[in-house]
Amino acid sequence: MPSHNSSGDIDVFSGEMSDVDIQIITSGGLRIPAHSAILAAASTVLENILVRPGKRRSSERTIRILGVPCDAVSVFIRFLYSFKCTEEQMKRHGIHLLALSHVYLVPQLKQRCTKGLAERLTIENAVDMLQLARLCDAPNLYLKTMKFLSSNFKKVEETEGWKFLQHHDPWLELEILQFMDEAELRKKRTRRHKRELSLYLQLSEAMDCLEHICTEGCTSVGPLDKEPSIKRQPCSKFDTCQGLQLLIRHFATCKRRTNGGCLRCKRMWQILRLHASICDQPNDCQVPLCRQLKLKVQQKGDDELWKLLVRKVVSARAMSSLSLPKRKREEEPKMDLSHPQVMNFRLAA
Ligand SMILES: [Zn+2]
Ligand SMILES: [Zn+2]
Ligand SMILES: [Zn+2]
């Protein structure tokens, strides 16, 4: 507990009485003896005050720190000596300490207060805290309070602080509402981004499955040179793989095809085209039409939208390959693609 007795403070600062060369005077009339060298070292503002030639009538030098409770000043001065303050002191005087740290430029204390006050945000004090953070130029505290306010807005709206703010600081009210609006937008953007990312991840997985079906074969579709009689187990990406196998089976037997406007066939064409766009070994590739589609792109080029899609799938694939073990490619069987048709798939009965 800070003492109102000045000699008590001297003990705390562990200074020699004889070295004391300055008195801090507080609003409550408390005099706190201190060492100017220590004050000057901790605060450039105090340093400037100390070197300023004062109109000293007596030999006693004083600095007035007014407008905050004596106890808070006492804790502040103590901090300049030890760079420490307790949780209890933070709880009782955090707001005043932040103001003091701002006025007297003590970054260590400001940091401590920013953290301490952010931990003590409540529905009741949030509006005041926001005003204080703005006043004291504490951007971290400001941002944390804004976030707190927007996620508890329904309750904050009911407080006296909010009502006061509406009447006296409409600009800050506007700032809060704008922040909440943007936060909502940010959330929407993140959701959209996540949805897109999952689409690219799905496509990237479909690319993995296509290669796996065309080289190893899966439960119901495999390459021509592999016996379908071997009962294959579902692979690790079976959800995607099964869908793709169904699509391939459809593609191989559909009478309408793309010209006939079949959407499923169109989708299969897109998957084959996407594979051709990202495949880096078209000459050894087992995926039907890979080389042909690649050649076609080399001759005709791709449109920008397609290129963007390809880039996104490639990066999604790179990301997922960081977390998944690479499929073994060593024992890939070679398949002659001299007469490549989509019928290169062998469909299990
Ligand atoms: Zn599979
Ligand atoms: Zn079809
Ligand atoms: Zn390929």
TrEMBL record:
Biological or metabolic pathway of the protein: Protein modification; protein ubiquitination
Positions in coiled-coil regions: none
Protein origin, superkingdom: Eukaryota
Keyword Zinc-finger: yes
Ranges annotated as spanning the membrane: none
Any Gene Ontology biological process: response to salicylic acid
Molecular functions per Gene Ontology: calmodulin binding; zinc ion binding
Keyword Chaperone among record annotations: no
Keywords in alphabetical order: Metal-binding, Ubl conjugation pathway, Zinc, Zinc-finger
Domain annotation BTB: ranges: 20-89
One GO cellular component term noted in the UniProt record for this chain: nucleus
Official protein name in the record: BTB domain-containing protein
